[in-house]
Each structure stands twice: as C-alpha cells, then as structure tokens.
Design brief:
Layout lengths: L4 H15 L8 H28 L4 H4 L15 H5 L5 H15 L21 H12 L10 H19 L10 H11 L7 E3 L6 H12 L11 E5 L2 H13 L6 E4 L9 E2 L2 E2 L4 E4 L10 H4 L18 H10 L7 E7 L8 H11 L3 E6 L12 E7 L9 E6 L15 H13 L7 E5 H6 L21 H28 L7
Parallel strand pairs: 1-2, 1-6, 2-3, 6-7, 8-10
Antiparallel strand pairs: 4-5, 7-9, 8-9, 10-11
Helix pairs in contact: 1-2, 1-6, 1-7, 2-10, 7-10, 8-9, 8-14
C-alpha cells in the first residue's frame, strides 16, 4: 500500500509528539530523524533481500552478497532486531546504529549523530518502545514510500521542528522560499558542481537538484558534484540523511569549521565550483581571525575582516571557491554588511574594484528564524556579461512578503517577481536601479539600498469638489472630537457646563 504525503507527514509529526515532555522541542530532530532513517534503510534492505532471493531462486548464500544491497546491515542491527528488545532499548538502538555506521564507513559514518539513547531519565524503555511501535506501523520501503514523498515529508518535519524552536532554528534552517530565490538566480544546470560551505540541513543542495529536474535536466549528472560543510554534528548528519532520503546517490557532506578548516582543497588551493551558495551565521564572532592572519588559501585577499564579525570571511571564502570561468555565488548577509565602514568598508571597496558583484537584493524583515532585521542577498559572478560590467543592480524587495503572525513569508509570486527583476537587470521605478561602480565609489562604496533606490511616490489628484468634501468631513470629525472631549472634562469637574 502506497503512503500519501499527508499520511506520512502526520505520522512523522506524531512521533515527535510521543517525545514531547521528556524531550525539549529543540532536541526532537536528534531522535526522530535517526529513527526515520534507521527504519527506512531496514525496510529497503528487506526489499533488496526479497529481490535477491527471487533472482537467485531462493539461494540464501547468493542473496547475501553485498552488491545486492545499497547499505549493509550487520546481524542483530536491523530494525526488526531492536523491535524485539523489551529492556535497555536505548542501548540496543545505539548498538544497532553504530553497527550500521561501521559496516558502511564510506557512506554512513557518523550519520546517526550523537543522541544519548541510553539516558533513561529522558528516554525510558516504555517511551522508546512506544516510539519504535509507532514507526513500525508504516512501511518505509521504496514500494510504499517513494524517495520524493519521503524526502518531502522529511523537509516538512525539518520545517515543523524549526517552527517549534523558532529562534534556535536559524542555525540549521533557511526558509525554503529564500533558498528557491537564490537557486533560481544562480540557475544551476546539469553536470555542474554545487557547493554550500554552511550547508545546515542540506536545503540549498536539494533545491539545486529540484531546479535541475524542473528545467528538464538529468539530475544524475549531479551525483558526485554536490558538496557541503557543516560545523554542527547533528545538523550535518541530518543533511546527509536528507539527501539520501531524497534519492541523491553520491554527494559529500563534511562536518567541520569551514573558515578554520575548509574540507575541500588541494594542497594550498581551495577546490572551486560552478555554483556556490550559502546562508552563513550572521556577523559571527570568534570566526577564526587567528587562523586567517596567515591563511594558507589566501582567503584574506581583499582584507582581514573585523574580529567580531565573520560576514566578509564567508564572502571571501566563497569567492575563492568559485570556478574561474563559470563560477557564480549567492550569499545571505545581514543588511549592515553592505554599509558598515572600517575594515568591512575597505574589503567592500576592493571587491567592487574586482567587478565581481552583480546584484544586491534587499529582502523584507522577519523572514528568518531568530533574525527580525531585514537581510540581503549578494550575487557575485566571475565573468559578468559585457553589458553588466562595471555595474551593480540594486533591488529593494523589502515589500515583497506576506505578513505572518510570528514570521513573514516569501510566497511563490514574490520569488518570481524578485527573480524577474534580477534576470531583467534594468531600472524599475521605486524597485530596482542599475548603478555604475563610479556612482558607488562617489558614495564611499556604501551599498545601502535607499541611497540608490527611492520609493515610488504616488500623487493623488483630486477634483475641487472631492477636496471640499474631504475638508468638510475633517472639520465635522474635529468638531465631534472637541464636543466629546468637553463632555469628558465637564463630567470630571474640570470644565464648567456652558
């Protein structure tokens, strides 16, 4: 029986509700995602075993050959084995997950994260048995749960966990509409390499896959060309599970600190990629200035960022990571990064002189978890089109959002409009201006958007009759207010009755 997306989404969210109480909402992801992935690979393993037995006419020995399976599951490490355990369930779970990781060192090493399954104060045997039985109700094999459906439900769960934790979510989750806008601007094509130096849960890499598929490209040409690095262990594990569950066959997500120890390099040169995309932590303090003083990869080519803000450390790392001819990048930054002076102003001046900056897009406020201020997107390109040289498109998209109760949202029509302005690269009154580097230099290399894009002023034209009617209405309202105030003062004894 095939599971629908809505069925799977509600089932997965219910698993989080089982944890509610003993486990803080911020930690749901550390437990639910590993269980989901464990159940998935166990169910797929059952399907692969059935197919192998059929192919080899029931020959058990031949069916056990490793090439028949996507992942190896050692003895006593299958979901069914753990389901039989009644006591010390957390210990059995942890042992099974570690066994699977060790049996698949090149693909699954560390993928289940570091959750404390054996902490009985938090996870009692009864709670874990309830959780395991809940997951056991649905088959998560390929026959019942296709990769695209499972992947979408996984993304749904990431979003739900982000909503539940709000302020803490910014470190691992970028709103998918913002990701879609950035990917649409970069327009990755089949066969190109894509890199996210602060990949979080892998959403930008996944959106690049979706984009290639939607533009009728062969996503298989991306296998082996998807790269990401993420500092947080749990988040990097979630990113890997996310890509596997979406059907990505070959990618490289490395846990580590990109600024202090970049994962992708050859000798003293950073690896380069066609598309570089990221939402780094805003104005990160203690970002690695000590390492960058003598950076072996030359990432301080435009200057040393200030010790208390790593924004331009990420920008320079990403520029160094762009392929020489085809490279382009999009990065989300706090608005202050485009106008702060001092060291950042000097770096901005040098980057502008290199004529790599193609567009600055100011977004609306409160779009990101834990960041109510308005962010911006900077778009860079190694080889700008001839008619875009020595120019920068400045876009004020700050009004493009739907107001939400706790958070604003970019809807598909907002994404489409903003992308259209960037694609067309022309003046739009009150919205966008193509500005020369000369004009920017005259403004001390300050890219603050209101300096270049003035809001559209609408002048209302009234007839004499309409103006007189409005005046009469205003006068009547003023008289009524005056009478009301006088009545209140008389009642309080502050004014004598006429």
């Amino acid at each position: 029986m095939t599971i629908t997306l809505s069925q799977l989404e509600s089932h997965l969210w219910e698993s989080a509700n089982i944890l509610r109480g003993p486990v803080d909402a911020a930690d749901f992801k550390s437990y639910v995602f590993p269980l989901l992935f464990f159940k998935r690979i166990s169910d797929v393993n059952d399907e692969e075993r059935a197919a192998a037995l059929k192919e080899f006419d029931g020959d058990e020995e031949s069916a056990q050959f490793s090439e028949n399976y996507g992942f190896q599951i050692p003895e006593d490490c299958h979901w069914a084995d753990v389901r039989k355990v009644a006591t010390n369930v957390g210990q059995a779970l942890q042992a099974a997950m570690r066994g699977i990781e060790q049996a698949n060192p090149h693909t699954l090493n560390g993928i289940f994260g570091d959750a404390q399954w054996t902490n009985k104060d938090r996870l009692s045997d009864a709670l874990l048995r309830d959780l395991i039985e809940h997951f056991s109700k649905l088959s998560l094999g390929n026959a019942a749960a296709k990769a695209d459906v499972l992947g979408q439900s996984y993304e749904y769960l990431i979003k739900k966990f982000a909503d539940a934790t709000n302020k803490k979510a910014g470190e691992f989750y970028t709103p998918r509409s913002v990701v879609r806008l950035m990917v649409n601007i970069l327009d990755p094509r089949e066969g190109e390499s894509i890199y996210d130096p602060t990949c979080g849960t892998g959403g930008m890499l996944l959106e690049a896959i979706h984009h290639v598929r939607e533009t009728r490209g062969d996503v298989r040409t991306l296998w082996g060309k998807l790269f990401g690095q993420e500092k947080n262990l749990t988040t990097s594990a979630i990113a890997r599970m996310n890509l596997f569950l979406h059907g990505a066959a070959d990618f490289k997500i490395v846990r580590g600190d990109t600024l202090r120890s970049p994962a992708f390099h050859t000798a003293d040169s950073l690896a380069t990629f066609d598309c570089v995309i990221a939402n780094p932590p805003f104005s990160l303090e203690k970002w690695g200035e000590d390492v960058w003083t003598n950076d072996p990869y030359g990432r301080n080519f435009a200057g040393m960022p200030p010790a208390k803000s790593g924004d331009y450390a990420f920008v320079q790392h990403m520029i160094k990571s762009m392929a020489p001819k085809t490279g382009r990048m999009a990065v989300v930054l706090p608005h202050g990064a485009i106008f702060r002076m001092g060291k950042e102003g000097e770096i901005r001046q040098k980057l502008l002189a290199m004529d790599l900056l193609e567009a600055v897009i100011g977004l609306g406020s409160n779009l990101f978890y834990g960041a109510t201020l308005a962010p911006c997107i900077l778009v860079f390109r190694q080889k700008k089109a001839k008619d875009r040289k020595n120019k920068v498109l400045i876009v004020d998209a700050s009004k493009e959002f739907k107001t939400g109760r706790s958070q604003n949202e970019l809807l598909p029509e907002h994404v489409e409009r903003i992308h259209g302005w960037v694609r067309d690269y022309e003046d739009v009154e009150g919205i966008a201006r193509v500005v020369t580097l000369e004009e920017i230099a005259a403004n001390d290399h300050n890219l603050n958007i209101p300096r270049y894009v003035e809001p559209k002023v609408t002048v209302e034209v009234l007839t004499v009759e309409e103006a007189m009617n409005r005046l009469r209405g205003s006068a009547q309202a003023a008289f009524a207010a005056e009478e009301k105030l006088a009545g209140m003062l008389i009642r309080e004894g502050l004014l004598q009755s006429p």
